[in-house]
């Protein structure tokens, strides 16, 4: 499938950046602050899913409080429609959305939702029943709306910058799962395995989620837009016709110039439509869709409820979830090794489809295998999930102009979240024949 011309071939683009930075300044601006940017992107990714991962990680607390409601599956299924609908709305209106306000609103809502978990638990005194459970579901929905603001917005924003930023952001998302798993081991060991101990662990998770979300608000609002490398890439996107970066450029101290009229400089305003971008990248969209259908059809519901009892006892589910989260994090760093990074479009699609063989492997392992095989399979699920996700999201935007990269990032996240939603629904198929 043909691609649009890369930015370096766009007439007038290089001269505009030369006027802004100087010929020697362009090279410096493209690298200055890069490592700080990578670290901040990692933190921003961490804050993106820390709250929801915290709710999943304390599933033993919610299972204790609401044993009849399948909280692990219900919370995930409640979260997904809201994140999907919010992302779809923003993707459709991507070119007209103020990306800065979108992302800041999302991180603020992450903070308020995590704080809401604490308030709800205090008001209900850690009580069970349908009322508190509905409250938990409402908070899960609010986290979904927040994720719909941030994940697509940040991916689109970072797609017009260097690939390392996208990789670090998605590694941060995986790190949130690994960190919550590590903290869950700590709280389970420190606090008694009782209702009060589980409650203390849950409150600790929510407090840390509040901290991460607030940190992300401050970093994205005041630190990230002022990094020289970020200002360079956003200036380049503005020179290519992007309107979504204007507020971020202003926050970085750069007053963006008006975009020339189409008849004066048509190359600035011409860009592929979302439909054209999707047509050219349908295989990438299908990749992320299928990756997450498989992952969410197994994690976390099947691992939490359908893998039986083994010698690890109550630690078994925590070990499985930690195994997935840690291997997912490792998988997202593997593409940094060029020799093993998948760049072939056909190779990526073959790898994604082949991954569905894991369904049979999990079924027979749960039925006949021991805990060692299940832990190994879960690690393989996470490793492949992280590696393939980063490969797709870093390869797809290459060769497009800034506005197109932003739009494509939003489109791919929409398909990713659609896969998560379908996967979360498919997870219920494991219950066939077992009764409600």
From TrEMBL:
Q: Any one cellular component term from GO for this entry?
A: membrane
How would you describe this protein's topology in the membrane?
Answer: Multi-pass membrane protein
Alphabetically list the UniProt keywords: Membrane, Transmembrane, Transmembrane helix, Transport
UniProt keyword Transmembrane present: yes
Domain of life the protein comes from: Eukaryota
- Compartmental location: Membrane
Q: Name one GO biological process term.
A: nucleoside transport
What are the boundaries of the signal sequence?
none
Say yes or no: keyword Nucleotidyltransferase present.
no
The family database entries (PANTHER family) matched by this protein are listed as: EQUILIBRATIVE NUCLEOSIDE TRANSPORTER, EQUILIBRATIVE NUCLEOTIDE TRANSPORTER 3
The UniProt family comment states: Belongs to the SLC29A/ENT transporter (TC 2.A.57) family.
User: What's the protein here called?
Assistant: Equilibrative nucleotide transporter 3-like
């Amino acid at each position: 499938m043909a691609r649009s011309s890369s930015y370096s071939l766009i007439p007038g683009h290089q001269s505009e950046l030369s006027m802004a930075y100087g010929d020697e300044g362009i090279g410096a601006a493209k690298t200055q602050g890069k490592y700080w940017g990578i670290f901040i992107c990692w933190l921003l990714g961490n804050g993106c899913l820390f709250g929801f991962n915290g709710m999943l990680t304390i599933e033993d607390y919610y299972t204790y409080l609401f044993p009849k409601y399948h909280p692990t599956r219900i919370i995930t299924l409640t979260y997904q429609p809201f994140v999907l609908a919010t992302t779809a709305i923003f993707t459709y209106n991507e070119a007209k959305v103020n990306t800065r306000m979108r992302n800041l609103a999302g991180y603020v809502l992450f903070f308020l939702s995590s704080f809401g978990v604490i308030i709800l638990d205090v008001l209900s005194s850690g009580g069970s029943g349908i009322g508190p459970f509905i409250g938990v579901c409402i908070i899960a929905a609010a986290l979904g709306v927040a994720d719909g603001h941030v994940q697509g917005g940040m991916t689109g924003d970072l797609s017009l910058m260097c690939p390392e930023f996208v990789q670090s952001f998605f590694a941060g998302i995986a790190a949130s799962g690994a960190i919550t798993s590590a903290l869950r081991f700590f709280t389970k060991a420190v606090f008694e395995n009782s209702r009060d101990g589980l409650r203390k662990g849950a409150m600790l998770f929510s407090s840390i989620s509040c901290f991460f979300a607030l940190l992300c608000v401050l970093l994205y609002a005041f630190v990230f837009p002022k990094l020289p490398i970020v200002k360079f890439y956003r200036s380049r996107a503005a020179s290519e016709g992007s309107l979504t970066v204007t507020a971020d450029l202003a926050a970085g101290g750069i007053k963006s110039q008006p975009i020339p009229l189409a008849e004066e400089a048509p190359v600035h305003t011409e860009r592929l439509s979302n439909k054209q971008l999707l047509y050219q990248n349908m295989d990438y969209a299908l990749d992320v869709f299928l990756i997450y259908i498989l992952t969410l059809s197994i994690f976390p519901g099947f691992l939490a409820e359908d893998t039986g009892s083994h010698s690890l006892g109550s630690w078994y589910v925590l070990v499985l979830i930690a195994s997935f989260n840690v291997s997912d994090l490792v998988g997202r760093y593997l593409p940094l090794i060029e020799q093993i990074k998948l760049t072939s479009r056909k190779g990526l699609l073959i790898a994604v489809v082949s991954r569905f063989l894991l369904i049979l492997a999990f079924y027979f392992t749960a039925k006949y295998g021991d805990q060692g095989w299940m832990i190994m399979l879960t690690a393989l699920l996470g490793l492949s999930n992280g590696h393939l996700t980063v490969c797709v999201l870093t390869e797809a935007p290459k060769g497009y102009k800034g506005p197109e990269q932003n739009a494509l990032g939003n489109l791919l996240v929409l398909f990713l979240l659609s896969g998560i939603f379908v996967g979360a629904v498919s997870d219920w198929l494991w219950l066939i024949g077992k009764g409600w």
